[in-house]
Design brief:
mainly alpha; about 60 residues; 3 helices
């Protein structure tokens, strides 16, 4: 995947689907960003575009 390339049409659909698969296998957004060279924001946007159900963020409880 090319980090700086504008994605549109079928290419965007294919990349988003690949990122969704990776995320659903357990990779984090930051891991995917590091692997692809995309920013975390771009990864999140493509995951959203693909209709990915996002995992909740970690919540720290300081009792």
């Amino acid at each position: 995947m090319t980090a700086r390339k504008y994605l549109k049409g079928e290419a965007r659909i294919q990349v988003a689907a690949a990122l969704k698969k990776r995320y659903e296998e357990g990779a984090t957004i930051r891991q995917i960003a590091k692997e692809t060279g995309y920013t975390a924001g771009r990864v999140a946007g493509l995951l959203w575009f693909a209709g990915t159900r996002m995992r909740p963020g970690a919540i720290r409880c300081d009792d």
